[in-house]
Amino acid sequence: MFVIPLSGMFGVQSDLLVNLSFYRFPHMKIAFIYYWFWGKRCFELVRIQPKYEIVLPKFPIIVGLYFVYLKQEFYLMTDPANLPELIIALSRDKVRLQLLADKDAGREDWSAIYPIEALFMEDQLSLAFDHALNTNPSLMDHFDRVEVVLVDRPNLCLPKRYAENDQWPEIAERYLRYRNGDALIADAVPSSNAILAYQVPIRTINLIHEYYAKADHLHLTTVVWSAIDDHIKKLPSVGLRLFYLVTGDSLIILGESGGHMTFTKTYFVSDSKDLHYYILACNKLMQPVENWAVTVDNEPNDFMVNELPDFTFDQTLPLAELRTLIARHRACAS
């Protein structure tokens, strides 16, 4: 075993000193890298290129910490195997489709956004799907893993005890815009004594199942919280933390205290002034101890949450791609 200092290598900033325990298999072009990540013992399988250049996995393992070698349980940080093959992201005024590459099937990564006037009108949604199918015939393939992500649907964070007593639908109907023909859905919130309740028109779900019978659905807030939870569970409890994520023209704010999700709210933002107002208002009202700016890799957004004037975030939290976050959440929830 020997330790490789990576400061200044592989594009890592020079002020980050990272020590990794490194094992190379003789006569093989692979190696194990061991490291300490947010309080967890981790390892990665990497490829060795000529001149011993290490090709690191996509998931970022370089953070501003000093990693040490400890004999503790391993925690695998590589991308999950069961990535969704197709993601259908539903927002109030658009549908976004993301197709995952599959060399065996001859598919390449593909993504498209289709503006619509009324998302939950079946004819509008059907037109968007038909246009996508005509544009990319690969969307007609058979998919085993299709995820429908509700991006900005109003939602409600409720204590888990209401789910155990089947009381949550009655409470959710009071606070959500529930109408006849709507389906009330509750996502389990990882590592938290809470559920996330929201509503979706049943006809919308049925229409999607006409195109993709195996489509499953969940709320983006649930996925983001699951990823946040992975990062903060080993951090000391400091009181209320607020996490801010901009996706498209939506601002998602999540509150955490004692390792549990305590608050969630989604706002439509038309310009940077809206964004600034909602962040300042929530900060003043809730008075968090820490404010975190969250980003999701390759997610389109109309504004940069961490570039606001007269407001400084305590921490930034870059997350992996949406497809990876979904797969990790499903793996933890199963």
Protein topology:
Elements: E1 2-5, E2 19-24, E3 30-37, E4 40-49, E5 53-55, E6 74-76, E7 86-90, E8 94-99, E9 110-115, H1 122-135, E10 146-150, E11 155-159, H2 160-164, H3 168-175, E12 182-188, E13 194-201, H4 202-211, E14 215-219, H5 220-232, E15 241-247, E16 250-257, E17 260-268, H6 272-286, E18 290-296, E19 315-319, H7 322-333
Parallel strand pairs: 4-6, 7-10, 10-14, 15-18, 18-19
Antiparallel strand pairs: 1-2, 2-3, 3-4, 4-5, 7-8, 8-9, 11-13, 12-13, 15-16, 16-17
Helix pairs in contact: 1-4, 5-7
Short description:
The chain has 334 residues and is of the alpha/beta class. Helices cover 23% and strands 35% of the residues.
Name a few traits of the molecule.
334 residues; alpha/beta; six-stranded mixed beta sheet; five-stranded mixed beta sheet; 19 strands; 23% helix; disordered N terminus
Explain what you see.
The chain has 334 residues and is α/β, with parallel strands linked by helices. Strands 1, 2, 3, 4, 5 and 6 form a six-stranded mixed β-sheet that branches. The longest helix is centred in the last third of the chain and has 15 residues. The two termini are 36 Å apart.
What is the H-and-E element order?
EEEEEEEEEHEEHHEEHEHEEEHEEH
Put simply, the count of helices is 7
Report strand %.
35-45%
Gross morphology is globular
Q: Residue ranges: pLDDT <50 for 5 or more in a row?
A: 1-78
| Main sheet properties | 6 strands, mixed
The number of strands is 19
- Overall radius of gyration: 21 Å
What is the residue-mean pLDDT, rounded to a whole number? 78
- Structural classification: alpha/beta
Helix content class: 10-25%
Separation of termini? 36 Å
